[in-house]
Amino acid sequence: MASSLTKDSVRPGTPGSEKTFFGHPRGLATLFMTEMWERFSYYGMRALLPLYLVAPGGLHMNAGTATAIYSVYVSLVYLLALPGGWFADRVLGPRKTVAVAGLVIMLGHLCLALPAAASFFVGLGLVAIGSGLLKANISTMVGHLYKGPDDPRRDAGFTLFYIGINLGAFVAPLVIGTVGENVNWHLGFALAALGMALGLVQYLLGGRHLNPRSSEVPTPLSAEEKAATLRKGLIWLAVAAVFYGAVSFSGHFTLNWALIPLTLIGLIVPILVITRILRDKDLEPAERSKVSAYIWFFVAAAVFWMIYDQGGSTMSIFASDSAKNSVLGWTFPVSWYQSVNPVMIMALAPVFAWLWLWLNRRGKEPSTIVKFSSGLVLVGASFFLFLAPLSIAEGGHKAAALWLVAIYFVQTVGELTLSPVGLSVTTKMAPKKYASQMMGVWFLAVTAGDSITALLSNPAVGGVNLDRMGFVALEAALAVIAGFAVWMYRNKVKKLMGNVN
């Protein structure tokens, strides 16, 4: 990226350096590359995960168990963003926390690269923990590079950062997926470890360009709080160790002793967090009203992510068994489907940004509620479209790859309609007391959605075949009905939202 660094003749004194990255603080290049490599490792491994779980040369599980594991893993990544943010705010600060996160992620991928089932699940846990620590804090450091929210470069800086995310997500399945599927599964996971290692090295080398604020601990724990937190943590760890030790020694331990509790935690924690905020007596009536309105968006988002994230599990497993996976006679690895969404995001995001501004200037930009309901209807429509390749497969034929590409396209349009709007409305509707924590609450919608998928697909609980036409149609109908419900009650939600549009 050295060729893109130029002398800063416009804004001298940019934090950390006299150079800029496309006109932005030099530290953005460090964070851009860190996030790109981290997403490379994360999405590359995620593209392989469900395929490895069901493959005869992998763990050879049934589709239901594989989907449950995949869904619990994704839900944990977003659930752990909450304690990840707390850890940086109270213990290490964002800069050191991200360094620790990178190391934990790299070690996790190395565990996945070992050909043993036990180390594989340890690796999944480490990657989830590291991703939670990193996800909550690297965006905060991007914000630190700018001179407050009114810096005119701030939005463009986050846009560049977002490109880094999707660039890593696009390249990862093409590289890691190809090696994992065609050469060796564990070599693919090792490449994910290498990617995170490269990201960590350049992060440590480029750390001098970050704003000094990133090294600060905003609200450090007192000595008494540290002792109390450590004591509580050790007590819970001891309880878990004793419980699972007893279950293991009795010969009753199965994977579901871990999967089901984690699934339930993913459903219970979002409810507890939102309830605690809603019942906080310190909130003003207007703030409590906005939180009540936010519940509508949260539930709708959980339905959206429940369907959307099956693009990496249900649809991926379907493609490995029942799709042609070729274009014009050229066959490609199944994991390559996971590159469709990020490349479409990079192509369509600027179009949507321009479209909203164009409509706004004419006074015709859709409201937040209309955008949200459109996203739900679109993700429902994508699963109605999924019925076509499912029908072809049930007829004993292989579905064309373009059917799946079309489904991912519709889901991407739905994502661009709902996800950025959800992030924006979260910041607008957050009570002052919970200004930072509310972004973690938004991520909990992903946790809730994936936990529902895990509960349904787990053979020991729901035992639902998620790739059957009847259930796919039911999920599609649920999303469309939820979209229309949000739209039908828009006046009630608008009233609760107060001055937020």
TrEMBL record:
Task: Give an example GO molecular function.
Answer: tripeptide transmembrane transporter activity
Q: Does the keyword Acyltransferase apply?
A: no
* Membrane association type: Multi-pass membrane protein
Does Amino-acid biosynthesis show up as a keyword for this record?
no
* UniProt-listed Pfam families: PTR2
The biological processes this protein is annotated with in GO are:
tripeptide transmembrane transport
Q: Where in the cell is it found?
A: Cell membrane; Membrane
The domain of life for this entry's organism is Bacteria
The regions listed as transmembrane in this protein's record are 43-61, 67-86, 98-118, 124-146, 158-179, 185-205, 234-253, 259-279, 291-308, 336-357, 369-388, 400-418, 439-457, 469-489
Write out the entry's keywords from A to Z.
Answer: Cell membrane, Membrane, Transmembrane, Transmembrane helix, Transport
Cross-referenced CDD domains, in alphabetical order? Answer: MFS_DtpA_like
One GO cellular component term of this record is: plasma membrane
The family classification in the record reads: Belongs to the major facilitator superfamily. Proton-dependent oligopeptide transporter (POT/PTR) (TC 2.A.17) family.
Q: What's the name of the protein?
A: MFS transporter
Q: Which organism is it from?
A: Streptomyces dangxiongensis
